[in-house]
Specification:
It contains 7 helices and 17 strands. By secondary structure, the chain is of the alpha+beta class. Helix 1 runs parallel beside helix 3.
Length: 292
């Protein structure tokens, strides 16, 4: 199966963003892609007021357009993420939707991990206008399970392990990774998740500048279960694609059966689930001499 990651430089210009997204989805399909992935916030990337103004329900114009592209082109389309208006919820959701070749929704994932961080001199507070999701989601691609994640989720390996244990063979990562963190972390994290969970990763990123302070790293990529980068985008709006060899994935999982070799009965999480940052940074490592 051929999978493609679409790389965009979305801004607060909604119509222009949709036009470029459609053009590149069509190009990826013409190149033979059966699975196409758009980046995070592909409809609008901009200040909070632009995000709010562009938000729409699941049957809104952008996702309806994406469903139409999937239906017309006969592809599976993960429509990156869009700001979603959720009935009965004050805040928006950051939502990724997977469509089948018939244009029907196969899975809807609302981003679990909010990007509330300091990067250099810029403060990001995603949770101010968006509410975290609480469900792990997979879609079915002709019998192949596809796990859905979004951007900052990459830093939480628990989510990816759960997706793998639920049968995911491919995991999608629509993103708008910052340029500063992306230089050092983007490829490392994607390859780590691929190796740990022996999955294909299809990571579609934003590239370039958007208001008020976004500077996205790009380098969209497709990575195999051995951690090999099969395709990586240059620093422009484009798509990259690669063949996903599931027979090779089966061979890796058979010969290096790390998922089967897990010992969940030995894994003990802290009772309160919180990290003791002081203890984590100062504790001496436990050393065993092998004696009982």
């Amino acid at each position: 199966m051929r999978a493609a990651a679409v790389q965009l430089n979305s801004t607060d210009e909604y119509d222009r963003n949709l036009e470029v997204a459609e053009r590149l989805v069509r190009a990826a399909a013409a190149d033979g892609a059966e699975l196409v992935v758009l980046p995070e916030k592909w409809t609008v990337l901009g200040p909070p007021e632009a995000i709010r103004d562009s938000a729409e329900p699941l049957d809104g114009p952008a996702l309806s357009a994406a469903a139409g592209w999937a239906r017309e082109l006969g592809v599976f389309l993960v429509a990156g993420s869009v700001p979603e208006v959720v009935a009965g919820q004050e805040k928006l959701a950051n939502t990724s939707v997977m469509f089948g070749p018939d244009g029907e929704r196969l899975a809807t994932y609302r981003k679990i991990h909010m990007f509330d961080v300091e990067v250099g001199d810029v403060s990001y507070r995603e949770s101010e206008i968006e509410q975290a999701g609480d469900r792990v989601e997979l879609g079915d691609l002709n019998g192949t399970k596809v796990g859905l994640t979004i951007c900052y989720d990459l830093r939480f390996p628990e989510l990816y392990r759960i997706l793998a244990l639920r049968g995911a063979r491919v995991i999608t990562v629509p993103s708008a990774f910052t340029e500063r963190t992306g230089r050092d972390h983007w490829e490392v994290l994607i390859r780590a998740r691929a190796i740990e969970d022996q999955v294909f990763m299809v990571a579609a990123g934003q590239i370039g500048v958007a208001p008020p302070h976004y500077r996205s790293y790009g380098r969209s990529m497709v990575v195999d279960p051995w951690g090999v980068v099969l395709a990586q985008a240059p620093d422009t709006e484009c798509f990259v694609s690669a063949e996903l060899d599931f027979a090779s994935q089966d061979d890796i999982r058979d010969k290096l059966p790390s998922l089967r070799n897990r010992r969940p009965e030995a894994y003990r999480w802290p009772e309160d689930g919180d990290v003791d940052h002081k203890r984590a940074s100062t504790a001496e490592p436990a050393i065993s001499n092998g004696a009982p």
